[in-house]
Design goal:
The protein is α+β, with helices and mostly antiparallel strands and 295 residues long. 72% of the residues lie in helices and 9% in strands. The model has no long low-confidence stretch (mean pLDDT 75).
């Protein structure tokens, strides 16, 4: 066990010396791989923030139930009782006509909306959040509520929320595709980097073999170098993505606040960053293994 650990520590020391022997070339190789990693990382961050913004914008489908203008308090109580018993209703909220008028005045910035009108034309409304998000379930619930007494109209607002969910799913698929394609590109870069190292150290490797070095002993430093290069590339991508988010966030704050959305953008979580480091290290090591297999 001690000999095995010593062999790996020695390989790590060789890798460190090799890395610092040509720091500019090693750094530029890591930057090239890191730039490739920036695309899936940036796509992941954009998709995650779009989901957060969509939740903040209220993407849950809603059904608006408009009551008759002369609906009494007893009739509203009966409708609320039915809503509580309806299995397809997750929750609901009542908006009185006066509250609706006040909200409309606040949004439009005009206090003279009632000029020329004898009374408030807005109806009392119930906003229903259905238990199921499918269009069929929402239509079924709307048809049931539409037949209740004192209900004059039912509006299903499902198209926008359904489009947002489809957009989020499409974004996840695009990010996954980018990750696969750029992972292959990273593998090719690591393969070529290690292959060039092997070619430039052919004589050194031959001498080591003459003195009894095993293939595993010769292979380990190159594998660790590929992993180290992958980790350096992932760190570069992580830092650049975090810095870009830090720079963009205050410039988007005014726009997001204008729509009542949170101006705090989500970056890579520590778990995401560690997963990125691990993935990049494995791809770098795999590229080194393939390059060594040719020689």
């Amino acid at each position: 066990m001690r000999a095995w650990l010593h062999a790996h520590f020695d390989a790590i020391a060789q890798t460190r010396r090799q890395f610092w022997r040509r720091p500019v070339a090693a750094f530029l190789s890591a930057v090239v791989i890191g730039v490739g990693l920036l695309f899936p990382v940036g796509g992941y961050i954009v998709a995650a923030n779009l989901k957060v913004l969509a939740v903040g914008a209220g993407t849950d489908p809603q059904i608006s139930v408009f009551l008759a203008p002369d609906a009494s308090a007893a009739e509203r109580a009966e409708i609320e009782r039915r809503l509580r018993l309806e299995p397809g209703v997750r929750n609901f909220r009542f908006i009185g006509k006066d509250a609706a008028l006040k909200e409309l005045q606040t949004r439009t910035g005009s206090d003279d909306l009632m000029s020329g009108l004898a009374s408030n034309p807005l109806p009392d409304t119930y906003l229903i959040t259905p238990r199921e998000a499918s269009l069929v379930a929402q239509a079924r619930l709307a048809d049931s509520v539409r037949n209740w007494p004192r209900v004059v109209e039912v509006d299903v607002d499902a198209v926008w929320s359904d489009r947002l969910r489809m957009l989020a799913k499409t974004g996840d698929i695009v990010v996954l595709g980018l990750g696969v394609v750029l992972g292959l590109a990273m593998l090719a870069i690591s393969f070529n980097t290690i292959r060039l190292q092997v070619l430039t150290r052919t004589e050194e490797i031959a001498v080591l073999r003459l003195f009894g070095a095993t293939p595993s002993y010769v292979r380990r430093p190159f594998l660790y170098f590929g992993a180290l290069q992958g980790v350096a590339a992932a760190l570069f991508a992580w830092v650049v993505a975090g810095g870009s988010l830090w720079w963009i966030e205050p410039r988007l704050a005014a726009l997001l606040d204008a729509y009542g959305l949170s101006s705090r953008l989500a970056g890579l979580l520590p778990a995401d960053g560690l997963a990125l480091l691990g993935f990049s290290a494995l791809v770098g090591m795999l590229g080194a293994w393939l390059a060594l297999g040719e020689h």
